[in-house]
Amino acid sequence: MQFETRSLIFDNLLVYETRQLRKNWQQGLFIMEDFILAEGIYQNGPIFFSVSPEKNEDKFGKFTYYLPISEPVRLSDETDFFFQEQLYIKEALVLRQADQATDFHAAYKRVQEYAHQHDVPLEDTFYCVLLEVYDEVIIDLYIPLNNRGESS
What is the pTM of this model? Predict the structure, then answer.
């Protein structure tokens, strides 16, 4: 299992936030895909999402879905979407596909165990970047280092 420390930077993001069951994580992806098709927005990078734990809840989480787009957009106030100029995480512990783990929550626990063993403080929120390679999806799991995470 190979862990790395990397940054995560994306510009011009379409963002959608929701609270949902962790097992339903793909629903937000479908909602974003439908929205960009209806609005004629051009995607120019991998879709990714963050998961923030809910207090006293194992099954629910706050999900924030990000879609890199070609240029800034103005959205009407009636939508559940908003535009974010940039996401920048200075340092994060990263695991690619969690060495083929099928569940990113299991991968998250592995990264937490590694961080605990090596005294690396992590934030509670983690990011999953979905990379499509030869009709398969590879998940890069990013967990920001505590006090060195999101800058903007």
Answer: 0.88
